[in-house]
């Protein structure tokens, strides 16, 4: 394996790396760093926790030190927490440069951000939505000179998930220069390769870690088959077990909805577990505060939605529990990748109901590895089943009384207004559409019924004929016998 200096990295950066415990380049760094330093576009696909961030931060800092100006580099990433984490890596590694960075994410004050942008920071790290808002609404900054455009978690930025970034990306791409270096990184690039190539247009250098299994070797991947109703009891049992056996372990629990996230947190707290939550319905300040509490180890359990599935680098995380089986193998890869990072060991546990077995098969197909069953004392789980389920119900009632659903509706309306839509009009439109759909459904049903009737009648006709013939035949006979 080569060292950083043979890859062309300057001594001052090598010193900075050493201070962070980065002594030898990881494969993604070894392969992508020289190409980026040569001025090529680059697409890097390497497993979770393999040092992709430094693979782009280091060459950008080196180029910036040779020709410092602002805005030199724009980094886009799908989540706010990830934006802060990337900015921190730039700050730490770029300390000798007196680096000026600026973080542009939703949920924070726009005026402050606009002011910071106007001061021409060297590096801007942003989530696409908020940056596009600034571009649309302000002319106090421009990105005409940027040398580097980086998309971290590039496949997520391009796919049309529940948060769709494609429109915002278009706005951003329309204001950055065509002559630039584009760097795209993720642990799961391959499904979106074509779309990515349209962004990194200059014959990008493409590097993918060569390994059949798409999750890291140090990760022990387990599953537990459970009926839906026993899931929470398993969860409480597992956490109790891990806390008894390993006091210092931190655990991330992923679940599918914000509401579930909140309920699970309340429930675990009822059992005296130190739990905090992270989901997109929380105020941004709360999100940061909760993540900080978890990172510092004050709270050992984080319950999160997929907003925390990608990129977060928290070395103390020893266990990832999937409270729901992820619907997409890709999401599974990122979720379990929050543990077993940078050569450390970790465990992932996926709770699987009978309805999720096909999802597990899809996951195993993609990662090219089999999940092993995790054995649990079932009698221990059954002992706490009633208590856990009653506690959950109590938490649900408590949450309902705080108008969680109503808040969700208000948030939805706010988001629509921000998108320039009228929520009432949208609601009416949706109702109209529903009416049309229902009418069509009824119409189809009527046609279907009448076709069915006709078919039945046709089927019945030959039988009727047969019966008539039989009746005729028998009357004939009776004539002949003289009856
Ligand atoms: N060469 C290195 N040697 C040792 N540790 C490293 C090296 N490069 C990076 N690291 C550390 O490895 C950890 C994981 O790095 P990073 O967050 O960049 O992973 P990633 O590949 O982006 O993962 P993900 O796909 O989950 O985003 C970080 O704590 C980082 O400081
Ligand atoms: Mg990363």
UniProtKB/TrEMBL annotation:
Residues 446-459, 468-483 have a biased composition (Basic and acidic residues). Residues 234-382 form the Helicase C-terminal domain. One of its GO terms (molecular function) is ATP binding. Its EC number is 3.6.4.13. The keyword Nucleotide-binding applies. It catalyses: ATP + H2O = ADP + phosphate + H(+). Keywords: ATP-binding, Helicase, Hydrolase, Nucleotide-binding, Nucleus, RNA-binding. SUPFAM superfamilies: P-loop containing nucleoside triphosphate hydrolases. Residues 2-30 form the DEAD-box RNA helicase Q domain. It is found in: Nucleus, Nucleolus. The keyword S-adenosyl-L-methionine does not apply. Pfam families: DEAD, Helicase_C. A motif (Q motif) lies at residues 2-30. Its main location: nucleus. Residues 437-483 are annotated as: Disordered. Belongs to the DEAD box helicase family. DDX49/DBP8 subfamily. ATP-dependent RNA helicase that plays a role in various aspects of RNA metabolism including the regulation of mRNA export and the levels of pre-ribosomal RNA. Regulates the stability and synthesis of pre-ribosomal RNA and thereby regulates cell proliferation. Also possesses antiviral activity by recognizing gammaherpesvirus transcripts in the context of lytic reactivation. This is Probable ATP-dependent RNA helicase DDX49. It comes from Paramormyrops kingsleyae.
